[in-house]
Amino acid sequence: MSSDLEELRRELDIVDVVSRFVPLERVGSNYRANCPFHPDRTPSFFVSPSKGIFKCFGCGVGGDAIKFYALYENLSYLEAARELARLYGKRFNLAGVKEEEKVRVALERVSDFYRESLLKNEEALEYLKARGVDGHTVKRFSVGYAPDSRKLAEFLKREGLLEEYLKTRNLVSLGSGNYRDLFLKRVVLPVRTPSGRTAGFSGRRLREDGSPKYVNSPESPYFKKSSLLFGLSETKDYAKEEGYALLVEGVFDVLKLFSAGVRNAAAPLGTALTEQQARVLAAYVKKVYLLFDGDEAGRKAVRRAVPLLLSAGLEVFVVRLPEGHDPDSFVTEYGVKALKGLISSAEELFSSLINGGRDSLEERIKLFREYLSYLPDDAKRIALAAEFQQKAKVPLETLLTPPKRRQASSSLPFKYKVLLKGLLSFRPKVRPEELELPKEVRELCYKALDGEEHELPEEVLEFNSPNLERMFYKVLEQLKKREFVREVEQ
Ligand SMILES: [Zn+2]
User: Fold this and answer.
1) C-beta neighbour count of 313 within 10 angstroms
2) In sequence order, which residues have a C-beta less than 8 Å from that of residue 105 and are 6 or more positions away?
3) Which domain holds residue 296?
4) CA 436 – CA 418 distance, rounded (Å)
5) Would 408 be classed as within a structural domain?
6) How many Å lie between the centroid of ligand 1 and the Cα of residue 36?
7) Å from CA of 204 to ligand 1 middle
8) 48, CA 20 to 30 Å: which among 21, 39, 363, 468?
9) What is the per-residue pLDDT across 301-316, written as a single tens digit (0 to 9) for each?
10) Does 196 reside within a domain?
11) How far is the CA of 291 from the centre of ligand 1 (A)?
12) CA 34–ligand 1 middle distance (angstroms)
């Protein structure tokens, strides 16, 4: 998708723009200077011509050439774009900037607003410190704070982006010029796409006040929760370097680990891992280490995540935390060295099942048969089964046959499980009221579409199949109400 704004960004030479105001010194393929936005004697301000961005590691400010000019000349982002275009004789039509592009600019600007507000809020800064999140991590992830709905609305008005930002539903108009920021009085973490674009936010309450612990941006074309992983944008380079990514359950686990020097973790946003998230991970690493909570819920989450990761072609390692610990509490109690020890001694999933461990042979055979069925590679499946056969003296055919899924305790018909799991995983544009469904199932459909995982029966969450997507669309077709189909056909 190209727009005037994107073209302008591509055409501007950030080194030229910045050096109009700040003398730059070359270091390798980048440039550096004393930061013009905070008292800086180190040089902490860097410019990357290949990425077209600047970033200050002292105060955390960063962005593209237009953003630099806007900050330096105290202009809104769009005004800065217009001025720069004039200055460099580029064609640029402000009226022609697409709404979608404006929403994306608004999201970046709101992230800046939150980031700057954090520095003025003692309580939020104290909270982060108490959670073991250090200053470097705060800057790297652009952690922020949402101080005041009215101030945010005024800020967006000045940027000429208020109407556009309302499209994200992160800010809601209450009428008569009043607004409500969804993240009000919360520590705000920007959730970015792997390429670094701000898609939305996750807000953590500062203290027990009866409100939900976390609030995430509502689903929208800009924020698709089921394909976003918190932290991946900031940690993917470290993960590539280490050769694996750590998958954790909580967004604060990512921050805490980063502060402690473990810089390759990412987390889903308060829900179980989805098929899309597994595929996104597979684009950056070949191996994933699961570092889930050491309790029954954590073990269940591992069992749900493993099939998705295997189906995405990833090699899986399970790190076992002691009962009752999450990564955050484990590092607090035993230190990061102990955690690194646990990680480096974790065994690859199939070899741990073949070589034994805590589980009984019977249990290992059951898991082996199930997990094996998700491996996309036939040759590998047969080789692993042969290896296990030698150890366990179990017939090869048994090992290569997936165990029957428990049907007895199941109360939902198969097609509804496919439907609900599909809605939860793919979040398609479906209106449950247009489907032929029993009332209870329809209610569950709304919950699945809202991502309210905890409201769904365990048998839906546990349900997995490598053919889910295909089955789901087939079921959807069958359930479409006849009168509705007729309406559409006419
Ligand atoms: Zn700075």
Assistant:
1) 13
2) 5, 77, 78, 159, 161, 164
3) 232-346
4) 15
5) no
6) 7
7) 26
8) 39
9) 999 999 999 999 999 9
10) yes
11) 34
12) 8
